[in-house]
Specification:
The structure is a homodimer. With about 700 residues, chain A is of the alpha+beta class. Chain A contains 25 helices and 22 strands. In chain A, helix 9 (about 275-305) packs parallel to helix 13, helix 13 (about 360-385) packs across helix 16 (about 440-450) and helix 15 runs antiparallel to helix 19 (about 490-500). The longest helix of chain A is centred in the last third of the chain and has 44 residues, at about 510-555.
Chain lengths: ~700, ~700
């Protein structure tokens, strides 16, 4: 990784083939592409996020969704409502996962877990100048960091005029652009319909990221407000939110090659990286990360058991690690299959040739500095991976820092430690009740630290290393860790006590855990500051880099789009099958009959006898695709989505809902990192949703409320 | 299984949709079907097994093959030459599996293992009357058995006029018809060409029975004869056999939907069973067998190790069991997927309705008796599975029986114990050197016998059970088995000593193994006789059954064909893809590029750099399919093959070789048992063979010798 800049200059960048998670304002400039894909309406009609159909699109925070009636009825994925809508309303006697749930009137709708919200974006504006006000390219980095942070805090404070409203500063293009998003929080959300799990998550983990797919990954919720129409938390007399804009639902659906687009809130992508980062990731980084995850999974398996309940407590952590393991492994495989490294090398080479010819000396210097900083980051990536890893130490340190910050007036505190953040901090501690066991935590930390001490001293934190006896023999180190873990503050209850203490009270405690934190406190602060300096410098350097990149894109007649950042995006294209393996073709539609074919009677392929009989009776109603000769269940399109897009409306050229996007394919999941045109999005078909509501559930109340287009 | 005949009468049989492993003489009656499939030549041209192209088809005994030059050059599968052509010519220093082998002149061709033969069928005639001469429907069953056996021995003796000639009595339709096959044995066969294993068995066990497939499963051998033109064993001055008939090889190949047929020697199918057998197999029998295999595999894994070499010795046994395990498991799955039991039930019902109306009282009685006998067989299937299982006891008993038989004149001995069989018996003993370990054998036997003793006494052999103390406590039984296994005759060498002894010498031996055999000797004979009686009775009853079935088939305008029995058969149809899973379509051709795509660098997906470069260079030569845009590697057709068909010529409507059949698909392997129209045969494409000989091997000598059609 210690490549000279010269070597890099002869090489490298990015954005290979399109993909595109476009901001709505970009649509007019994509007229040709939209026409090519089969969209003939005025492109202005999809360029304003605050007009129909864009303003029918909402967010659950972690998922996307869409209004589908004027009374606040919302369609999203089943997997988006499992944890916070179905779980809290289920019991052994009344297991909604098994039975599913349908409210046959609004009165029957079920309250979600506290804190569940629907977010409706009200405004979005460019605030780059405001955020950077007071900085220049010459501002010292730490100073720059503080100015940006303070500007940001002030803007948010000014924007959040009531507790209905949440405001967010979003960075686009690594801080080249900042936007302020003003969002209405609807705080009373209720479950209206969820199919049983044998439909909603049919195929389970086995089919996750897989096609052919047969998952009925749909659910309906409804947003409520106070009688005065303002956002309120749950109350009996709340009334349905009036949704000015909502999507009609197509019973005709789409066919192969039809135009489709997806509107939603994709979370995060990494498509605008420099090539040195790519080269590290693809030749070492991903594999190292997968190895790390694998060892974590094994450790959890080894050190948890059913007897003391620890296996349940770490189930979420483990399945999260397994999910990532599957995903990153898929990315490694995909990178190989699609020659991602070579393609990115060629892209970067093209960019650098452009830079050589067109950039000023100053711009070149900035770019070289950026590459050098990233090389430095890469050099410590591995040791940083194994630094820490103790939830106990991490939380205690977090609370100490929080106590210190709370000594200051609210506006002077760092982001994340302000009054608006305090409830979330307490919730994080409470959450540990279901995700933390001190014995297991110690084992996980031990495994990390044993690895950490094998790194060269200059890749480690010196005081931390000394405090933990990392350069002594292993026993001496273990004794120290035993000592720290003998703390009084080893449970969420005790941590809540810490939370209540002032900084001074904490610093006066006599406890081996707190004693350790005192030793490393200054070092932690200095590394925090280092991080802030580096972040501010990178923000500047990346802005310069993005400007060059924009120009380069202009020069080759391509358009650039920002990495996903949980803001509203549009992706468009066509319903399309794919061949990813020699002699194997995936047709874009799966059918009801495929559900029966996969049925084994055992989870996750265990449909009810009733559903099996209904499918076998071939009573397709108005929801049959004549071409397919059945009701389509899931379909493929060449659209560009990522995590956070789950539940996004897939709409046709008339803006009718034809599906809900819910997954990608493992073979092309590398697209999150570097788009490949073979990438496919899996949506659950509106016809399967309607057929289910009609034939399986006889949900007349819903079918009457929504607008079905035949 | 104890169904009353009445219940069965309201039910059941067989032959659902066609398939068809036809005897050549049947082709004229299939004119319409042939025309429908795209064959427009005179159908008489493919009805005589002793005319071109049929007489170009030969057998290796366990595989099929075809002459492809006038000088005895033969094409077959790679996997058909591994054990007896490549293995004996390989060493650590000269590993032909790794390097492959090409003789650039006849002088370089390599001798196969001793005993390897090419069989050329010279005559085939119906001898049913001769075989049954001296019997009537009223002949007592044991008498009937003896008459048939004696007739058969006499016919063979008369037919085998020289050691060039082997004659076989083949039973068709369970003994409704007998045919005499006169075969020329070519006893000097040499390896001409085999690709390296990374081509010839690319994909290995993982891809076995799978598609998409990319296996270069082809090899070339040559038959030699003495200078006088007669069959001789290997000698330096032997000369190539003159093959009057041989197939030209197509460089144009076939495309989707083209007519193809396969000529070869399929080994065994089970498509003419009664429904009570089907019902048992599909509801219990297959699963029991799979469970048995699984326990065998586990036992071998547990009780063998590398230290004493036993894991190597049992490798073949184990991989055989694994192969069967995979196959039968696939059949169980396929039976479920294709509703085989229900389909067979309906077929049988149709047949029984016909029987009710049209059969005589005598015919019905015969049928009922057949069903009852099969019910009885079924009742003892499970206990019989666990009877025996000791290779030690089995061989010693075999040798005792052989010694007893050798006391008689040759013609009076039972089949299998005649002079013509003695060499094979000795070879079987010698083979134990590579497949037998007394410690492991005892463990396998113990596992069997522990299960066997759990069956009701009336399902077991009484004297055998008593001699092994099966009804005593386990320790007493184990002591007995220990005793038997303490025999002096526990090695192949010692068994060869037994082989040399007369019956009287053996009976006078004092040895725990022989002592045990003496105790059960009479019981064994009585069960042998029981078996013979039952076989003869079933031969009669099945002949009657088949006659009814023929009439039934006539009445519904279907043609019947005999189960595979290692005689020459023709199957015809089209090059065709298949969809076996919702939304997944298998294209009928795989391509060179697919080889590279599967390549991981690790066995069994480890092509050479040279091959990879050649493929990537896209130098397709004259072997490209324009439609595919590449050289086809393997292709699918809807033809009907089974074990023994490996290496069969796949030919086009002009009788040119377009491929070599080598596998079926696991998903439809149930076809061996009950044909399903979704069944597909995988052939390696002639264009891949030619491309390999040309571009990879530069095998000019071969390319000049064969006739390539462009």
């Amino acid at each position: 990784m210690k490549k000279s800049i010269i070597a890099l200059l002869t090489l490298p960048l990015l954005l290979s083939s399109y993909g595109g998670m476009w901001e709505p304002y970009q649509m007019p400039s994509l007229k040709k592409e939209l026409r090519d894909a089969g969209f003939y309406k005025n492109v202005e009609s999809i360029s304003n996020p605050f007009e129909y159909p864009m303003n029918a699109i909402v967010s659950l925070g972690y998922c996307s969704a869409a209004f589908i009636s004027p009374e606040g009825l919302i369609a999203t994925n089943y997997h988006c409502v499992e944890r916070d809508f179905i779980q809290p309303n289920s019991s052994l006697e009344n297991d909604l996962f098994e039975k599913g749930f349908l409210a046959r009137s609004k009165a029957e709708e079920l309250q979600a877990a506290p804190g569940q919200k629907i977010y409706v974006t009200l405004e979005s504006k460019d605030i780059t100048n405001e955020i950077l006000q007071g900085t220049s390219d010459e501002t010292e980095s730490l100073e720059r960091f503080k100015i940006i942070e303070n500007n940001s805090k002030a803007i948010i404070r000014e924007c959040e005029t009531s507790d209905e409203i949440e405001c967010r500063v979003r960075s686009f293009y690594s801080g080249e652009t900042y936007k302020l998003e003003k969002v209405l929080q609807l705080r009373d959300v209720r479950l209206v319909y969820a199919p049983p799990a044998h439909v909603g998550e049919y195929g389970g983990e086995i089919d996750n990221w897989m096609y052919p797919r047969h998952t009925g990954d749909f659910a309906l919720v409804r947003a409520y407000v106070g009688k005065d129409g303002t956002s309120k938390v749950y109350a009996d007399d709340n009334i349905p939110f009036t949704s000015d804009s909502y999507l009609k639902i197509s019973a005709k659906g789409v066919e192969e090659d039809d135009f489709v687009m997806i509107l939603g809130y994709p979370g995060r992508t990494n498509r605008l990286l420099t090539f040195n980062q790519r080269e590290y990731d693809l030749s070492e980084g991903f594999q190292n990360y997968v190895d790390f995850l694998e060892s974590r999974i094994n450790l959890i398996e080894t050190h948890t058991n059913d007897e003391d309940g620890s296996s349940l407590v770490y189930r979420g952590t483990k399945s999260g690690a397994e999910n990532y393991y599957k995903k990153i492994s898929g990315q490694i495989q995909g990178a190989k299959n699609f020659n991602v490294l070579e393609n990115e090398r060629n892209n970067w080479r093209g960019f650098m040739q452009y830079v050589e010819k067109n950039a000023t000396a100053q711009e070149k210097a900035y770019l070289n500095e950026l590459l050098a900083i990233i090389d430095k980051d890469i050099a410590t990536t591995e040791s940083n991976r194994y630094f820490g890893g103790s939830t106990l130490i991490q939380f205690a340190n977090y609370l100490l820092r929080n106590a210190e910050q709370r000594n200051k007036p609210d506006l002077e505190r760092k982001s994340g430690y302000q009054d608006r953040d305090q409830e979330a901090i307490q919730n994080q501690i409470k959450y540990l009740n279901n995700a933390f066991n001190i014995r297991v935590d110690k084992e996980l930390f031990l495994a990390n630290i044993k690895k950490y001490r094998t790194f060269d001293a200059d890749l480690r934190r010196p005081i931390y290393s000394q405090a933990l006896n990392l350069d002594s023999d292993e026993n001496t180190m273990l004794l120290k860790i035993d000592e720290i873990y003998s703390t009084n503050y080893s449970t969420p209850e005790k941590m809540l006590e810490l939370y209540e203490m002032s900084f001074e009270e904490m610093m006066n405690l006599e406890d081996p855990l707190i004693d350790f934190l005192k030793v490393v406190y200054e070092e932690n602060l200095s590394y925090e500051e280092k991080g802030e300096k580096s972040a501010a410098r990178k923000q500047l350097l990346k802005s310069k880099f993005i400007k060059l990149l924009r120009n380069y894109y202009d020069s080759i007649d391509k358009q650039i789009y920002a990495d996903a950042n949980s803001t509203l995006r549009v992706t468009f294209g066509n319903v399309l099958g794919i061949s990813l393996q020699d002699a194997v073709y995936y047709h874009p539609f799966t059918s009801l009959e495929g559900i029966v074919k996969k049925n084994t009677g055992e989870e996750p392929f265990n449909i009810s006898k009733k559903l099996e009989n209904l499918i076998n009776s071939k009573d397709y109603g108005a929801y049959e695709s004549k071409k397919l000769g059945s009701v389509p269940v899931n379909f493929l399109s060449d659209l560009d989505i990522t995590n956070g897009n789950s539940g996004s409306a897939t709409i046709n050229k008339n803006f009718e809902l034809v599906g809900l996007a819910f997954d990608g394919m493992l073979e092309t999941i590398i697209s999150d990192y570097s788009f490949v045109p073979q990438a496919r999005t899996i949506s659950v078909d509106s016809r399967y949703l309607l057929w289910t509501l009609d034939k399986v559930e006889n949900a007349e109340n819903i079918l009457e409320e929504i607008t079905i287009v035949n």
